[in-house]
Structures are given as structure tokens and as C-alpha cells.
Design goal:
Structural class: mainly alpha
Shape: globular
Number of helices: 5
Oligomer: single chain
Helix content: 55-70%
Number of strands: 0
Radius of gyration: 12 Å
Strand content: under 5%
Largest sheet: none
């Protein structure tokens, strides 16, 4: 499981949400959410609207999810 998948899974569990509840909250099909949580689809290559909706539903900063150490690899 990759870093992003672990973040999604751990945060979803912290908020006591099922995968279905989170998918509905983020406005996506449950199978698409599962692909992100299981690491089958790379979240950093996902459509921006998916990333932002997931971050909103999970109360996460998008930078925290997409970039390691919460910042761009260029150090910005």
C-alpha cells in the first residue's frame, strides 16, 4: 500500500466513515474511491476534482495528501 492510500484509509477510519459514505460525500463511485484507497490508482495522477473532493470530505490539506512532507518536491 502506498503512502497516499494509507493516508486515505487512516483518515477515513479516524472519521469513522465507511468507504461508501466517503464515496458519496466526495461525489464519486465507490469503486473509484476503492482504487485510490487500495493503491490501484495513483492519487497524484487523479483528476483535480477527485483530489479536492476527497480532501474536503476527509478534512485534509491537498498538499498533505499529494506531496510527501506536505510540500512540492521542488521545495516550494
Amino acid at each position: 500500500m502506498n503512502r497516499e492510500a494509507r493516508i486515505l484509509k487512516n483518515r477515513r477510519r479516524e472519521l469513522k466513515l465507511t468507504q461508501q459514505e466517503l464515496a458519496v460525500e466526495a461525489g464519486m463511485h465507490i469503486r473509484q474511491y476503492q482504487r485510490y484507497e487500495y493503491g490501484e490508482s495513483d492519487i497524484s495522477g487523479a483528476p483535480v476534482k477527485h483530489v479536492l473532493r476527497l480532501c474536503l470530505a476527509l478534512e485534509l490539506d491537498p498538499y498533505e495528501l499529494v506531496f510527501e512532507d506536505g510540500r512540492d518536491v521542488a521545495g516550494k
